[in-house]
Amino acid sequence: MKLITTITEIRKIVTEWKKAGKSVGLVPTMGYLHEGHQSLIQKAHAENDEVVVSVFVNPTQFSANEDLSSYPRNIENDLEKSREAGASVIFHPDVSEMYPEGYNTYIEAFGVTEVLEGASRPTHFRGVTTVVGKLFNIIQPDRAYFGQKDAQQAAVIEQMVRDLNFPVAVVRCPIIREADGLAKSSRNVYLSAEERQAALVLSHALKLAKKMLEQGEKSAATIRHAMTEKIQQEPLAVIDYIKIVDDRTLRDVRVIEAPVLIPIAVRIGNTRLIDNFVFGRTE
Ligand code: PAF
User: Fold this and answer.
1) What is the DSSP-derived secondary structure letter of residue 266?
2) 145 with 139: CB under 8 angstroms?
3) Mutate to test the pocket of ligand 1, among 39, 53, 56, 58 (most ligand atoms within 8 A of CB)
4) Band of pLDDT at residue 283, cut at 50, 70 and 90
């Protein structure tokens, strides 16, 4: 498994692949890979001749009060996990390779970025679209793979690809969960044993919403109220948001008639966790 650190080198490799008529899948990550990332790499491996996994803790998507330096990193583990899952190479550039001295250009999507995660992290998605746009230009993948766990991020990238005509297919992959229902996340390592148990309240609240929807409940307010009560029963949990939105535009829905996304963000101790569930979409 090759670890490539420069743009020149990864471009050379991809150019060779393309000359040989090979298709290329890209799995953009910030590293600290777990089974959730591996499921994206496996899908990319199944659908493409070659797979690039990018590992880059992107500073432009962290705000000044978010601790970029303490974001978990383990490149040895990332190499091993990527190899196991079928990646061809890892692209692991330095910050100075991606944002050299004098860098001053950004991609900004509007409409889907100001709500949900964007409401409390106003510059976050500008950083995500900028780095993903750069990765698309550097690697020129046929397909790029994103987890449904970050449903808003997937919607933002889809909009950017549509609006800016990037010649890449965005593939959304399902959330991977622990056996007890907790969505896999690099941030789960921050949870103490007691917090890890408390964190189950997120998937329990989503299960409750699913049950209510299956029983025919159409009022978003009623479902949100029941989810709020459920989460408030857990003393370590503090709700950031519980929303019911159109799963593509991310606009609030009051009466549930079409497919909806139910995204939630909850603090468990010092760790902010997100999870979600889509109801009513079959394709
Ligand atoms: O989801 C992530 O890990 C990051 O936001 C991404 C897409 C790799 C961009 O830095």
Assistant:
1) E
2) no
3) 58
4) low
Q: What pLDDT score does 92 carry? A: 98
- The second-level CATH assignment, the architecture, of 2-173 is 3-Layer(aba) Sandwich (3.40)
In the CATH scheme, what architecture does the domain 186-276 have?
2-Layer Sandwich (3.30)
Residue 149 to residue 115: CA distance in whole angstroms:
16
Element (H, E) at 278: strand 271-279
Global pTM exceeds 0.85: yes
User: Which of 121, 126, 153 should be mutated for ligand 1, with most atoms under 8 A from CB?
Assistant: 153
Angle of the 151-164 helix axis to the 124-139 helix axis, nearest 10: 60
Task: Tell me the per-residue pLDDT of 245-262, one tens digit each, with 9 for 90 and over.
Answer: 998 899 999 999 989 999
Domain residue ranges in the chain: 2-173, 186-276
Q: 187, 109, 102: which is closest to 150 by C-alpha? A: 187
